[in-house]
């Protein structure tokens, strides 16, 4: 059924007495409101006014004075071109427009509050995928402790490990990976690092290797053919062989082995020697006929660090995950004994 509005000719003084917003045609012709010009504090005041329907009580609720709330109501009426609240014999009552706004404001302001306030993180509800670049010899130490922790605390989190560290810093910056685990001397600006554990180097030889029957010296060590795990990194991560590469060894061209799964099996069947972190060496020697021998020379310590880009630094999900990784590394090193965790460091002159 169509509704027709009949508007008789009336003097200008009478036309001005029409209720605010009664002229729908003029409302349609008004330009759209520019959101940048809206004071969101007015919406907070309006929510309180529509809830309490009393200027004094609404002002007390949001910590304003009664005159300030009255001024806010006047501005709101101008902004919406509607009275919003009118006086009745029982107090203030909302107009139809006010009723519609009363239904909308809680969800709208609730969404805004969620945007601008820190949310509490619940690990058990985290449903996502995290990609970590981590050489397999470090995964051998870390993952057996980390994965059970995550399965218990964040069962819906999928962890993907990438053994390749090539371009790790670039991939962190671009978001291709979330975290990197490896060796790095200095953290570039814009990145953070957290030391996970330190280790020393050890040599792996087959148990019946002829060198084990002789005196283990630098000379005997230097005459052996060496194998080294290729890290494929250009960022300084994973350089297990750095200490040996600086020595004046006859074998200047070691055999490159692609990963830590292949290397021990090859060492167990040949006269090669492989220098790896001690924790890795003891783990693989427990599974294969291999001997773990201290190197007959001093090598620099081996430190494993967790690296991430600053774009992830304040994310509560990733902050929690970094703490879990550090705790797993601590358990792997100390057998579950508790101690103070390392600090997160940033190499940035501006920090």
Give the topology, please:
Elements: H1 12-15, H2 24-29, H3 40-52, H4 55-62, H5 66-80, E1 85-88, E2 91-94, H6 96-116, E3 128-133, H7 136-153, E4 157-162, H8 168-174, E5 179-182, E6 191-199, E7 201-206, H9 218-223, E8 226-229, H10 242-245, E9 255-257, H11 262-267, E10 273-277, H12 278-285, E11 290-293, E12 302-309, H13 316-334, E13 344-346
Parallel strand pairs: 3-4, 3-5, 8-9, 8-10
Antiparallel strand pairs: 1-2, 5-12, 6-12, 6-13, 7-10, 7-11
Helix pairs in contact: 3-4, 3-5, 3-6, 4-5, 7-13
Instruction: Identify the quaternary structure here.
Output: single chain
**Unreliable parts:** 1-24, 336-351
What is the element string, with H for helices and E for strands? HHHHHEEHEHEHEEEHEHEHEHEEHE
- Strand-pairing-aware structural class: alpha/beta
Q: Which outline best applies?
A: rod-shaped
Rounded Rg:
35 Å
Number of DSSP helices? 13
How far apart are the termini? 70 Å
Mean pLDDT: 80
**In percent, how much strand structure appears in the residues?**
15-25%
């Amino acid at each position: 059924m169509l509704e027709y509005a009949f508007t008789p000719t009336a003097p200008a003084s009478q036309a001005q007495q029409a209720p605010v917003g009664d002229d729908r045609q003029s409302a349609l012709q008004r330009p759209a409101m520019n959101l940048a010009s809206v004071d969101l504090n007015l919406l907070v005041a309006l929510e309180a006014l529509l809830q309490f329907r009393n200027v004094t009580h609404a002002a007390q609720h949001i910590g304003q004075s009664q005159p300030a709330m009255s001024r806010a109501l006047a501005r709101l009426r101008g902004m919406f071109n509607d009275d919003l609240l009118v006086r009745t014999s029982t107090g203030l009552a909302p107009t139809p427009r006010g009723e519609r706004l009363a239904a909308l404001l809680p969800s709208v302001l609730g969404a805004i509050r969620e945007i601008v306030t820190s949310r509490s993180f619940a690990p058990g509800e985290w449903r996502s995928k995290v990609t970590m670049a981590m050489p397999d010899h470090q995964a051998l130490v870390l993952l057996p402790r980390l994965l059970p922790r995550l399965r218990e605390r964040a069962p819906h989190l999928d962890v993907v490990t990438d053994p390749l560290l090539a371009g790790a810093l670039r991939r962190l910056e671009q978001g291709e990976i979330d975290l990197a685990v490896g060796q790095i001397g200095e953290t570039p600006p814009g990145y953070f690092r957290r030391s996970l554990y330190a280790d020393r180097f050890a040599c792996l030889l087959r148990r019946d290797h002829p060198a084990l029957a002789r005196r283990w010296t630098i000379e005997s060590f230097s005459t052996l053919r060496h194998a080294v795990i290729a890290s494929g990194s250009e960022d300084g991560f994973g350089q297990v062989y750095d200490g040996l590469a600086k020595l004046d060894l006859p074998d200047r061209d070691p055999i490159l082995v692609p990963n830590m799964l292949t290397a021990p099996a090859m060492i167990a069947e040949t006269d090669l020697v492989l220098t790896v972190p001690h924790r890795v060496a003891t783990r693989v020697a427990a599974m294969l006929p291999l001997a773990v021998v201290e190197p007959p020379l001093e090598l620099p310590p081996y430190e494993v660090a967790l690296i991430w880009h600053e774009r992830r630094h304040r994310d509560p999900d990733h902050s929690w995950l970094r703490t879990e990784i550090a705790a797993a590394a601590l358990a792997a090193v100390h057998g579950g004994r508790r101690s103070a965790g390392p600090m997160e460091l940033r190499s940035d002159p501006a920090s």
